[in-house]
Write a structure and sequence with these properties.
globular
Amino acid sequence: MADFVGALDQGTTSTRFMVFDHGGNEVARHQLEHEQILPRAGWVEHNPTEIWERTRAVVQSALNKANLGHDDLAAVGITNQRETAVVWNRRTGRPYYNAIVWQDTRTDRIASALERDGRGETIRHRAGLPPATYFSAGKVQWILENVDGVREAAENGDAIFGNMDTWVLWNLTGGTDGGVHVTDPTNASRTMLMDLETLSWDDELLSFFGIPRSMLPEIRPSSTSDAYGLTRPDGPFGGEVPLTGILGDQQAATVGQVCFAPGEAKNTYGTGNFLLLNTGEELVRSKAGMLTTVCYKFGDHPTVFALEGSIAVTGSAVQWLRDQLGIISGAAESEPLARQVQDNGGVYFVPAFSGLFAPYWRSDARGAIVGLSRFNTNAHLARATLESICYQSRDVVEAMREDSGVSLDVLKVDGGVTANELCMQMQADILGVPVSRPVVAETTALGAAYAAGLAVGFWNTTDELRQNWNEDRRWEPTWTDEQREEGYAGWKKAVERTYGWVDVD
């Protein structure tokens, strides 16, 4: 067998390809950003063609840098930004419209109409999700209703849909020449169209959005020895490699953090924050604003479910300080700037740029900076930005405890923001539990590699994967209970100030 497994990680701001060895160690990587297209307030788009070009480039560059070829790879897994929807023509391969990104809020009227007339309860029960702008189905409905010719093309079988995993896989396996139109249950469970109990597309849910079934990809396991397809010799791998794993990015990080037992949880700090709690084979229906989602489905083994708290804006709030306000020139500068002050100086920043996700689900909310006085500086704003990441995570932990009865002993963390040591110390202080970062912080790509490698026997069991996990750094809480509760009370007041800013019909 080949010595390595590859993972293609198609994320919100960039695409990367990574290669791992049997010990779960990184052997090679290349990463490229893509354009964030913001046509108007609340709209966020990506160019799917640009993303496919970036995909080709990162695979070729990573393999070249490590002097590897396709025959060095036992398998390749795909992980992706979930809910970001693409509709394209299966005959030409051309997208009908830009990909509508998970952060986009243009479908707020679609979501509120579902809630108003009672269909929202059906979606909650069957799909495990509240009707919200976050998920894919409303985005597909918007494209069908607003882009000329797409409805007709969908009804005659030419227009097809997928999240980014499906788009990338279709292109890797040949595109217009035999491309495979497939997804997995972790991505399908983020559409508002899949029945969680059967792991199949639901006709009644499809009817709510007017989406023809013929547009949808086939749902296959997240890890399968019967490969979805092979990469093409004329593609970026230069030969045939089996594609055997697909996991949405947050489920991939859960697998990469080896959270295989019920009650184990991880928090990924990326563009947004996503905290997943493994609930095992039990489908726990949330009453506290969490999402019920598929954690993974490995081959013929029973489906494993999770509760998820999804937060729209965390790392991207730091990007906003850099790109829109210009108070830092790079994300790494947020830490030394925030360290210039001892506390937030009374300032709270609630970055509800896309409304509020879990546990509030308020599409009428918008971002607010509150508590300002003449005393405050850009350092206070930087500190409040880092605190907002941690307070939003506490909101989710509180809601998960309410749903599951599970109190965390430790929070496993991963993703780019975990490089910010001040932010991780704040997280331990605000939660009151230790925070643990693994040696391999890019657990999303690692989880996709694990799913692909398990399918072909590169790794044999999840116990084998546990042996690969090693702690890099741990932060212990230093705040008193009084500090913690006082800070959280201020945060809750600030959140309330964001409500009702946008009128939603």
